[in-house]
Every structure is written in C-alpha cells, then in structure tokens.
C-alpha cells in the first residue's frame, strides 16, 4: 500500500509538470550495503525511491539518498553520511535515518525501530536540538510523507508561493498551535 502512495506521489509530480531530479539510481546491492553500514533495514517505499532516483529533488524538496560518488560520499544529501553525522552528534537514535531538512530548523527521519506490518517505518520531525529535545510523528511511512509533501508543494504553487507571494502565517505541516509548540524547541 505505501509503495502505491510513493508511486502516486511521483505520478502527481509528473502530471503537474514538476521537474523531478535524481542522482544515480541505486542497485539492490548498493541498497544492501547502505543497510549493512547503517545496521538496519530501510522501509520498502524509501528503497523504491533509492532504486528509482538515488536521491530525489523537486521544487525545493531535496530527499537524501544514494549518490554517484558512492557510500562514502561526504555530502549531506548522502543518506549514509547524514545518518552517521547525526548519530555522532547524538541528534538521532541508532534506529533513525534522516532524509530531509526542513529548511527552518527541524529535520525529518524514518524511525526504523517502529516498523509496521507493511515493513514501513514511522516518520518524525526532529527538533533542531535532536530527538531528546522533541519529536512529532508525521506519517506512518515514507510513501505517506512523500505524498503529503507533494500535496504541500503543489498547494504552495497554487497559493502563489512560486511568484514570491508566500504566506508566512502558516507553516508547512501546520496544526493547531504549531508555532507555540515549536517555541519549546528553542528554549
């Protein structure tokens, strides 16, 4: 089911003529090497993204993944590098894999300790101070998160964000009291 959410998100981008950029598609062996290095199993929808694009970029969204420079590439967009760096800084647990920076402080992770029956990992927004400073569950899978992100980006285009008329009064992923809750992250 979540692979379908991932596939629908990609199809929606294409149908809306959004430019989709990738790096070098990861092979099954390269994905196994990433999992071995990180000592966890990646969710199926994220592995599909790695196979289809390597790393994925559309609009201003840049999802970390596999890069043509390989597993040891020292770039933030290399999921191995980003994960090892965040682990070393104690910003994430050993079961979390960062895959996207918010652009406003927090970042997004898959928590591979929380695997559902479909093999998918829960998605969290992590405080800039790290997982011990606060996390908010956003989705049950990478596919579900990507689908919501695509909808958010397309909604932003419809609302005039593309022309610089951005409405700063409501953040992405808003719910009641969002900024009030976020203020705790900066205490």
Automatic annotation (TrEMBL):
SMART domains recorded: SMI1_KNR4
Pfam family name, one: SUKH_6
Entries under InterPro entries matching the protein: Knr4/Smi1-like_dom, Knr4/Smi1-like_sf
Domain of life from the UniProt record: Bacteria
Protein name (record): SMI1-KNR4 cell-wall
Disordered: region residues: 156-187
Domain Knr4/Smi1-like intervals: 25-148
SUPFAM superfamilies: SMI1/KNR4-like
Residues passing through the membrane, by range: none
